[in-house]
Amino acid sequence: MLWRHGLSAASHRRLLSSACIQWSSLPVLRTADVSSFRDLAFVPGLPTLLPRKSLTAFPAAEKWFRPHRTRPDQLDLNYDYLELSGSSLVPLEYSSPLRAFIRSHAPLSLFLEWMKHADAATDNRFYLAQASLHDLPKALQDDFPAPAIVTTAGRGDVYATNLWIGLPPTYTPLHRDPNPNLFVQLAGSKRVRLLGPEVGQSLFDRVQSLLKTGSSGKFRGDEMMQGREKELLEEEVWASKSSQRKKDFGYEAQIEAGDALFIPNGWWHSIKGTGEGVTASVNWWFR
């Protein structure tokens, strides 16, 4: 139970009683053209899905992945191609039932070797999380050209391009990004829940007040990935079922390979890798 970390049973009951969120399916744009995206999502700052399977033309979709050798309905990494850049340093998140969460940099080859032998039941887990594309060799960078939505919907300023690769279940806790975010699923599937700026801030502050901490939630900090903060944030977002009381309102979406999700600046979100086989995503922070 959550209160084994020092949270009282009464506080735990108050926390759960507050988690009354009406989850609705995320709207889907009818077309993926830049003008529609700008008018209906980017300018008004509204989260939305682009038409399903509308972003599948990345060179990475063919170069980085291949059908799994024993489960053809799933994708695996193309190790022959990626191992050519195996000496590149990438950020890895390590977690296990017996050790604290650790974030460090290691050769890409270490991650690839783990991926070859791991499965959903593996206790010791690695997640290549928020790996800056610009830290990788140019050959790999060229596999992710920025979509026209990123380069032309706003000022054309691209602040960062990040990669996320692992085996489900992967998890990113509730947080908000510093810039508008186009999040594209490359392989596998993920489930996303989003809350508006005021609702998300209220939920996050409620957890922080119980913990008596002052995290801002603006970045994917280590404190979110372990201990009480991780458990309470996950409980608030993912244990919250749709409530007829409609105390708060949020969106949720299941995204598959080729799907693209726009997350406006200030919108809180949490993401879980689901299903089987490799799950991989790329995102652009832009204005």
Task: Set out the fold topology.
Blueprint: H1 9-18, E1 21-25, H2 34-42, E2 48-49, H3 59-63, E3 65-67, E4 75-77, H4 79-82, E5 89-95, E6 102-107, H5 108-117, E7 125-132, H6 138-141, H7 148-152, E8 158-166, E9 171-176, E10 181-187, E11 189-195, H8 197-211, H9 227-238, E12 248-256, E13 260-263, E14 268-274, E15 279-286
Parallel strand pairs: 1-12
Antiparallel strand pairs: 2-13, 3-4, 5-6, 5-7, 7-8, 8-15, 9-14, 10-13, 10-15, 11-12, 11-14
Helix pairs in contact: 8-9
Brief account:
This protein has 287 residues and is α+β, with helices and mostly antiparallel strands. Helices cover 26% and strands 32% of the residues.
Outline the structure in words.
It is a single chain. The chain is α+β, with helices and mostly antiparallel strands. The chain is 26% helix and 32% strand. It has nine helices and 15 strands. The strands form three sheets. The protein has an eight-stranded antiparallel β-sheet. Strand 5 and strand 6 form a beta hairpin. Helix 8 packs antiparallel against helix 9. The N and C termini lie far apart (42 Å). The model is unreliable at 1-18 (pLDDT under 50).
